[in-house]
Design brief:
alpha/beta, eight-stranded parallel beta barrel, globular, binds cobalt (II) ion
Length: 458
């Protein structure tokens, strides 16, 4: 039996443990080895990598992708895309989404994992369509969550719908790391029975269940799983690549991974991790096993945000009340999966409701936009009374929100002007206007100085 591994150290491992602050020079020397290690794919782009490159690392994210491509000619490169949101939290017009997908593939991406935070498939159809046209492997992801309305038949139906859209594989995306091993087994099995395309399992080690969750998914027939090389695994990151490899090998699975190369890769990243701890980039808290998430059914990251919020307000004693209010707010909103940004929206609203002693006295503009339909369709019934209270008689957006948006690419091109040297630059600007503009300005400045220096020297 074959089991495939997707290595996440360059993206999700990097993002979960050190807020995506790994510069390319840290992993450039090991790319050739990673390319020959036998991974099914290397997740290396999308998610927060793009933002982090421009904002903190002074790196052109497109250049990063091309460099990884050059050094990894044999392994599939994978990215994470938030459907109509591309890499952020607002909806972009279709022309921007299409250009972004096309350019991602042109610059070296093989597999695009596409998801929508509400599992509203209308929000991924354009990205899926363009990725199919660009010849990529399109992976449709469903966001796993627990609630009275989320159950195995609902996720199976989503998988069927994704298959109908033409995706090549389905990812069970447990972004909060709350899926337990037994659910993992049952859900994977049910999806495998319902669709004929490969199933990928993605989880996090946050609650300590991660490796068991992967193992049970493999027993149920999962084809691919996401793991991180051991020194960048555990805690809020993925379960360890090597441990899963050795475990499954004993059980008769063939991973195709080269053990010596895995050791070499891990040895390469060890000092990088040590340096990150020393620099304070890696907060030891993210390495903890956080079982409270299993009790409260909220992601570990959301729980620590709630604690931080309440501590700042000197009201940590209100935590039990807030934890009771969280599921009520979530119910009012029709049970959105607790992933960014809905996890923050629900958390902040629950805290406000408790601290003000009156529910929905203050409502954030994000919740207003959500109730207005700007994020898409809620998975369940929204509390109509609340909607009326917040929106009054304003009609709710029933259509796909992006249908209301004007094309954006040409306007962005005009805005950024000469600073953009190619369409990739324009897309960086569309995705993160202020920081991309600053990055492009710095680059232009540097180029001017280099030219001046060369001329003076000549
Ligand atoms: Co993840």
């Amino acid at each position: 039996m074959k089991i495939n591994f997707t290595e996440t150290v360059l993206r999700d491992g990097n993002q979960s443990l050190i807020a995506t602050r790994m510069p390319i020079k840290d992993f450039l020397p090991i790319l050739d080895t990673m390319d020959k290690a036998g991974y099914y794919s290397i997740e290396c782009w999308g998610g927060a990598t793009f933002d982090s490159c421009l904002r903190y690392l002074n790196e052109d994210p497109w250049e990063r992708l091309r460099t990884i491509r050059k050094h990894c000619p044999n392994t599939k490169l994978q990215m994470l895309l938030r459907g109509q949101n591309i890499l952020g939290y607002k909806h972009y017009p279709d022309d921007v989404v299409r250009a972004f997908v096309r350019k991602s593939v042109e610059n070296g991406i093989d597999i695009i994992r596409i998801f929508d935070a509400l599992n509203d498939l209308r929000n991924i159809e354009v990205a899926v369509d363009e990725a199919l046209k660009a010849g990529a492997h399109v992976q449709g992801a469903l966001c796993y969550t627990t609630s009275p309305i989320h159950n195995i038949p609902m996720f199976v139906q989503l998988s069927r719908d994704l298959e109908k859209m033409g995706v090549h594989s389905i990812c069970i995306k447990d972004m909060a790391g709350i899926m337990t091993p037994d659910v993992s087994y049952k859900l994977t099995k049910a999806i495998k029975e319902a669709v004929s395309i490969p199933v990928v399992i993605h989880t996090h080690s946050t609650t300590g269940c991660g490796a068991m969750t992967l193992l049970k998914a493999v027993e149920a027939g999962a084809d691919v799983m996401d793991t991180a090389i051991s020194c960048f695994s555990g805690g809020t990151s993925q379960p360890p690549t090597e441990s899963l490899h050795y475990t499954l090998k004993e059980m008769g699975y063939e991973s195709g991974l080269d053990e010596q190369k895995l050791k070499k890769i891990n040895d390469h990243f060890k000092p990088i991790k040590a340096a990150a701890i020393k620099a304070g980039l890696l907060n030891p808290i993210v390495m903890n096993t956080e079982t409270d998430a299993l009790i409260y059914q909220v992601p570990g990251g959301m729980l620590s945000n709630l604690v931080a919020q309440l501590t700042a307000q000197k009201s940590l004693d209100k935590l039990p009340e807030v934890l009771l209010e969280v599921p009520r707010v979530r119910k009012d909103l029709g049970y959105p999966p607790l992933v960014t940004p809905s996890s923050q929206m629900v958390g902040v609203q629950a805290t406000t409701n408790v601290l003000l002693g009156e529910r929905y006295k203050n409502v954030s503009k994000e919740i207003k936009a959500y109730l207005h339909g700007e994020y898409g369709r809620a998975p369940g019934e929204v509390n109509e009374e609340l909607r009326k209270k917040v929106l009054g008689d304003e009609p709710v957006v029933e259509c796909r929100y992006a249908d209301l948006l004007k094309p954006g690419l040409e306007a962005a091109k005009a805005e950024i002007g000469d600073l953009a040297k190619c369409e990739e630059d324009v897309l960086s600007y569309v995705a993160f206007p202020q920081i991309a503009e600053k990055f492009l300005q710095n680059r232009a400045e540097k180029e001017k100085n280099t030219v001046k220096y060369t001329i003076e020297k000549a």
